[in-house]
Amino acid sequence: MRKRNTGRGQQAPAPTPAPTSASSQLLFVDFENVQQVDLSKLDDAWRIIIFVGGSQKSVPIELVTSAQQLGSRAEWQKITGDGKNALDFVIACYLGRAFENTKLWISC
User: Fold this and answer.
1) Long-range Cβ contact pairs of 16-24 (< 8 A, separation 24 or more)
2) How confident is the model over 33-73, as pLDDT tens digits?
3) 53 near 82, Cβ under 8 Å?
4) Is residue 77 predicted with pLDDT exceeding 60?
């Protein structure tokens, strides 16, 4: 995973490309704020990125196993910084990159 400087001496992961035509829906999960995630209802059109904060120490095994079933359509991003709203800024960056890199309509 590539890293980029956040300007405060912290490194954040470089945003991944927008979804390909094989997965036309993209779901971002802010795990700091939403821990109850049911991935069982997502069909093959979905790609998911789960964002985990720097201070979070554990993730429920149920979420990990359900994400594993999605294979390459599931991605984990753990940020290294733990400042106020650090994860929110990383998610905003990823969302901006998704808008920038896709020719598909994106709804929030």
Assistant:
1) 16/49, 16/75, 16/94, 16/97, 17/97, 17/101, 18/97, 18/98, 18/100, 18/101, 18/102, 18/104, 19/47, 19/98, 19/102, 19/104, 23/47, 23/73, 24/104
2) 888 888 988 899 999 999 999 888 899 999 999 999 999 99
3) yes
4) yes
Which residues are CB-neighbours of 57 under 8 A, at least 6 positions away? none
Angle made by CA atoms 7, 11, 17, in degrees to the nearest 5? 105
Phi, psi (deg, nearest 5) at residue 75: -140, 140
Q: Which two tokens stand for residue 34?
A: 């939403």
Domain boundaries along the sequence of the chain: 3-101
Instruction: Take residue 22 and report the two structure tokens written for it.
Output: 């094989």
Pair of tokens at residue 4: 């980029």
- Average the pLDDT over each of 5-9, 28-32, 74-78, 95-99 and give the range with the smallest value: 5-9
